[in-house]
């Protein structure tokens, strides 16, 4: 591809020269330059072009010679660097041009020269660190011949050697510091004055007084053992008294300030401290006997609060009733209450997301029931202030949220129950059973209301079908004839048909015929079917049926359309 490009450029160069010459000839023709002058001018152009090309050829030949000389120089430098740095000789790739060979050799020499300087610099720093560590730890330095160029392997081994020594130094320094601190504390607690030189150096604050050798570590460990044996019995007694006193402080809700004051007031030798702690323990024991009942009462109150938070039913609280009602206050009874409280707290932390979801469901469930009660109120359609539209939007939101929350609860609780191997109960029931029981209870309440409305509707219908007497029309124009403004409509002239909670008023001058009553009965029967969820389920069933909001909404879809129709019929303008 590159050869074709060069050929095309050469051809274009020749074509350009030819075009330029043709252009010159045209200019000369226009000017009227004679043949002899044209030959002279062409010779000048030829000499100029040949001179330029010759200069370029000379420069390129010189470049070629320089490149070859550089190749020889770079090869010598590269061989020397590879030998010094213990590297394999550099192998040239075959088929490369002279320019590519020179470039590769130059870059390789630059890389190795830079690496050589970095190695020497790193070697100097590593040897300095190695020397310092070896002096502190009394070990032999890593050997590299002076003046030699380290290989990559030698540098890596030196790094690893220094890393090992650094870790060993940290470990030994930690051991030394811990041993000296322990010895110092033991002596201070016992009031022991240093006697030997080792004891004096151990309690001193000079960190460099000891070389970090194994022999010095062994000597400090032996001294520590001697101190520990001397005070072991007193320390154990004091630790036991402290532990018992702190436990009683926590149970009696002692103020932290008071505890700190007492601890700060404890002074003297171990024997004096034991006496003071023993006195505090006796005081706390007597105080616990007088306040044990109050402590247990507080735990019981907190336990009941968490039971309520977890919606635990009587069956779940029953196992602990024996202890809860036990009036024999003892430390064992307090321990049982603490264990029960800890258990219910852990349970609450596990099921907290489900309890929060259940609270949201109960919130929307209450809103749903409130909207259903408002739907049966015929007076709500008289509101023209936009409240009805707002109520409709909120009802749509509730209708969406109820099934969503029920589904989330069902999936989350099932996953938790499978993972824990236990049931999540709400007032002693499974969560979906609890929700279904709420729907079932609501359905029964609606059935009861329906029965009451049906009885009331029957009584109203009986009153409406009672024959009315139509007043005799009088001829106009008589002395006793009524004027148009004084015409009255008797109750018999308005026929009212009750449909569910809505009345349809029909102006009439005479009682309705049998045919008209039959035409109005389908409207009455259809609009009165405001059935609760799953009307097909018998109200005599005792066990709650699993009911979700989607089932209930489908059962009420027809009721909504009837309610809208009845609200239109109720408008007094009709």
UniProtKB/TrEMBL annotation:
InterPro entries: MAP65_Ase1_PRC1 (IPR007145)
Amino acid composition bias (Basic and acidic residues), ranges on this chain: 443-453
Gene Ontology BP terms: mitotic spindle midzone assembly
Domain of life: Eukaryota
Cellular component per GO, a single term: mitotic spindle midzone
GO molecular function: microtubule binding
Listed Polar residues bias regions: 490-517
Pfam family name, one: MAP65_ASE1
Signal peptide: none
Coiled coil: none
Span list, region Disordered: 443-546
PANTHER family: PROTEIN REGULATOR OF CYTOKINESIS 1 (PTHR19321:SF6), PROTEIN REGULATOR OF CYTOKINESIS 1 PRC1-RELATED (PTHR19321)
The name this protein goes by in its record: Protein regulator of cytokinesis 1 isoform X3
Upper taxonomic lineage: Eukaryota, Metazoa, Chordata, Craniata, Vertebrata
Record gene name: LOC106563511
């Amino acid at each position: 591809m590159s050869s074709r490009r060069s050929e095309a450029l050469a051809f274009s160069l020749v074509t350009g020269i030819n075009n330029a010459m043709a252009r010159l000839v045209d200019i000369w023709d226009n000017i009227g330059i004679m043949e002899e002058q044209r030959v002279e001018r062409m010779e000048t152009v030829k000499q100029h072009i040949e001179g330029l090309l010759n200069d370029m050829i000379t420069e390129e030949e010189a470049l070629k010679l320089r490149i070859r000389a550089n190749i020889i120089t770079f090869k010598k430098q590269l061989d020397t660097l590879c030998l010094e740095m213990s590297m394999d000789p550099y192998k040239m790739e075959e088929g490369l041009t002279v320019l590519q060979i020179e470039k590769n050799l130059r870059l390789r020499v630059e890389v190795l020269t830079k690496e050589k300087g970095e190695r020497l610099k790193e070697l100097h720093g590593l040897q300095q660190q190695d020397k310092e560590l070896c002096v502190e730890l009394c070990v032999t330095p890593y050997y590299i011949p002076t003046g030699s160029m380290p290989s990559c392997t030698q540098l890596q081994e030196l790094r690893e050697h220094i890393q090992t020594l650094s870790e060993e130094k940290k470990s030994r320094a930690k051991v030394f510091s811990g041993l000296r601190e322990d010895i110092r504390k033991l002596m201070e607690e016992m009031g022991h004055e240093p006697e030997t030189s080792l004891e004096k150096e151990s309690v001193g604050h000079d960190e460099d007084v000891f070389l970090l050798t194994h022999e010095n570590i062994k000597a400090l460990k032996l001294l520590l053992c001697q101190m520990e044996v001397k005070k072991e019995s007193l320390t154990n007694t004091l630790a036991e008294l402290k532990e018992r006193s702190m436990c009683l402080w926590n149970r009696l809700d002692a103020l932290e300030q008071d505890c700190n004051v007492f601890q700060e007031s404890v002074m003297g030798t171990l024997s004096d401290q034991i006496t003071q702690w023993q006195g505090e323990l006796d005081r706390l024991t007597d105080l616990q006997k007088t306040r044990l009942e109050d402590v247990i009462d507080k735990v019981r109150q907190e336990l009941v609060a968490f039971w309520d938070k977890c919606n635990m039913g009587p069956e779940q609280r029953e196992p602990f009733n024996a202890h809860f009602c036990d009036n024999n206050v003892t430390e064992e009874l307090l321990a049982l209450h603490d264990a029960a409280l800890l258990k219910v707290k852990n349970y609450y932390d596990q099921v907290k997301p489900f309890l929060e979801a259940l609270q949201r469901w109960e919130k929307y469930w209450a809103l749903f029931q409130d909207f259903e009660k408002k739907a049966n109120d015929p007076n709500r359609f008289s509101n023209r202030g936009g409240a009805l539209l707002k109520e409709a939007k909120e009802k749509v939101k509730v209708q969406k949220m109820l099934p969503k929350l029920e589904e989330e609860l069902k999936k989350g609780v099932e996953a938790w129950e499978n993972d824990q191997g236990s049931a999540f109960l709400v007032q002693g029931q499974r969560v979906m059973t609890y929700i279904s029981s709420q729907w079932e209870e609501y359905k029964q309440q609606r059935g009861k209301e329906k029965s009451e409305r049906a009885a009331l509707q029957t009584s109203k219908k009986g009153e409406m079908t009672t024959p009315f007497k139509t007043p005799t029309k009088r001829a106009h124009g008589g002395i006793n004839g009524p004027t148009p403004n004084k015409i009255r409509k008797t109750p018999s002239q308005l026929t009212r048909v009750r449909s569910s909670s809505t009345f349809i008023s029909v102006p009439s001058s005479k009682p309705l015929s049998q045919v008209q009553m039959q035409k109005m009965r389908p409207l009455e029967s259809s609009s009165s079917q405001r059935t609760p969820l799953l009307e097909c389920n018998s109200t005599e069933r005792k066990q709650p049926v699993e009911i979700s909001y989607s089932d209930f909404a489908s059962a009420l879809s027809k009721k909504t359309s009837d309610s809208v129709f009845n609200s239109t019929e109720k408008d007094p303008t009709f």
